[in-house]
Amino acid sequence: MAEAFIVDAVRTAVSRRAGGFAAEHPADMAAHVIKTVVGRHDIDTAAIDDVILGCLDNIGAQAGDIARTATLAAGLPESVPGVTIDRQCGSAQQAVHFAAQAVMSGTSDLIVAGGVQKMSQYPDILEPLLFYILHRASAVIRDKKISQVFKAFFIDEAWIFLKNPSIQKYVVEALKTWRKHNAAMVLSTQSLDELRRSELLDVVLETCVTKIFLANPDMDRALYRHHFHLNEREVELISGLVPKQQFLIKTPELAKVVNLTVDSKSYWLYTNDPYDNRKREQALAAYGFEHGLEVLSRAVVEA
């Protein structure tokens, strides 16, 4: 069996959502990378057997066969084909795997493989998907066969997608009616501005009678007092909360600080801090799952 080698690799710079590359078309960005990596080497571009690109959600600006579009935009011969694959977050990695398999099998000699994804245009791309998920969730929640089971639907940092009128309708209906079906919609955000931009702030404040505030010492106090009807004492409590250990529950009847006490083993089981994730991965690799958690737990206790 033939061996496969990665000859070279390049990528574009990374920018934030709606940042410096927001106006660039994803096909043009992919074409720039293809043209650059091919241009570094003295090869006959007509000898390229294929261009394989992974692309998460091939709709919107990424619709069609973006690999083929990028290949032509890069100036490669029309005889060079291009194929796009979607394996969600593993799309680009799968493209490289397919390229290596083709070389190792002897069916190809030279392939350009990689991935392209344009996050700035994802609100338009993902709104149909979010609409479908909400539609399916609504059907499950109204299923009388599981009415005795509590159902929770979480939307985390998805406010930018909620400008779609159809999605707004689903969310408003859910906030007002799902409790009758033993279900709840949980909305979480780190920014009051995101709530306001979603145009759902009034509905959220009206229907979400229970609100949970995390530690936020730098919050705009006047803004929080006005929108969430907090008194000065409640604002002081929020600003003084210990991050990851305390939160404030606010209902029409009371406001109470809750202390989150977690035993050391549970902490290492559920933590999602980058530093902790690294330590846990190392411990589990060295000692196995059960013993690894014990080692981490003892280290916390001894410290």
Q: Which oligomeric state applies?
A: single chain
Strand order of the largest sheet: 2-1-3
Query: Regarding CATH, which class of the largest domain?
Result: Alpha Beta
The count of DSSP E runs of length 2 or more, i.e. the number of strands, is: 8
CATH topology of the largest domain: Rossmann fold
**Proper CATH architecture of the largest domain:** 3-Layer(aba) Sandwich
Give the SSE order as H and E letters. Answer: HEHEHEHEHEHHEHHEEHHH
Q: What's the average pLDDT?
A: 86
Low-confidence stretches at least 5 residues in length (pLDDT < 50)? Answer: none
Helix/strand structural class: alpha/beta
Description:
The chain has 303 residues and is α/β, with parallel strands linked by helices. The protein has three domains: 26-117, Peroxisomal Thiolase, Chain A, domain 1; 131-259, Rossmann fold (3-Layer(aba) Sandwich); 264-302, no CATH class. The chain has helices spanning 26-39, 66-73, 91-105, 122-141, 165-177, 192-197, 201-207, 221-228, 232-239, 264-270, 274-287, 289-302; strands at 50-54, 82-85, 111-115, 151-156, 183-188, 211-213, 246-250, 255-259. It has a three-stranded parallel β-sheet, sandwiched between helices. A three-stranded antiparallel β-sheet has the order 6-7-8, covered by helices on one side. A hairpin with a 4-residue loop joins strand 7 and strand 8 (255-259). Helix 4 runs parallel beside helix 5 and helix 10 (264-270) crosses helix 12 (289-302).
